[in-house]
Fold this sequence. Notes:
By secondary structure, the chain is of the alpha/beta class. The protein has a six-stranded parallel sheet with strand order 2-1-3-4-5-10, sandwiched between helices. Strands 6-9 form a two-stranded parallel sheet. Strands 7-12 form a two-stranded parallel sheet. The protein is built from eleven helices and twelve strands.
Amino acid sequence: xNRLFVTGAGGFVGRHLxxxxxxxxxxxxxxxxxxxxxxxxxxxxxxxxxxxxxxDAVIHLAxxxxxxxxxxxxxxxxEVNLFGTLNLLQALKATEFRGRMLFVSSGDVYGRVPDxxxxxxxxxxxxxxxxxxxxxxSAELLCAQWHRSEGLDVIIARPFNHIGPGQNEQFVVPAxxxxxxxxxxxxxxxxxxxxxxxxxxxxxxxxDVVKAYAALxxxxxxxxxxxxxxxxxxxxxxxxxxxxxxxxxxxEIRQDPSRLRPAEQxxxxxxxxxxxxxxxxxxxxxxxxxxxxxxxxxxxxxKK
Length: 304
């Protein structure tokens, strides 16, 4: 049975990953989550954690992932996302790791992509537009360098927007779902505060994303980069309208300037051809199911 070491296992994706392992999505695999107290900026602590587990495979999820925060604290973002990754790589080398590592990056590394260049593919040159995206791309390059010069079996995943139950309300879809649930419960006026909801994104259920990680560990090719998405372009407005329909809510939509991001990408769509060809993975959970699950979570909260 493989020993799978996962950093950031207590986060949104990590909790769904743990559930997928219990369901057998990762094959004969035993989860060894990094302690919630592990600070990847602490090289000695990371080295000790890896030495105790001596993993056969690694998924590196730990990161600062909220883009607006990266503008207010870029140094902290780099310390976690780039230098935390370096600490993990050095810890793996110190324990003579011979397994496979999956580094979870982000579709944000592409920055602004012209409409005529969509859907974006792995071949497109990244042009990051936030400190978060720069930190992720830098860590990608670091992993690629270790693959070339240290012989590390590493795969880079670039997931696009993934959503599902348990996501923090600082992200757009749960922020909207929370308001819809409160309106449905009569706990707030029928007004929804939102940012720019006419942008489009490639949204994928987090449970499908986790299955993609399992497919990459089992069938991906060492040194490759893979995009993970739904292959469908949806506007935030469309998702909000679906949430309102599911909750039988009619509300005014009011733009909140504080929710607007700098350097906003108007449209985004990912090509998932490579991961499909190399692993056979494809998303299976419908957007309506995902949104209903998110809404159920917040509706349950309004009843407490």
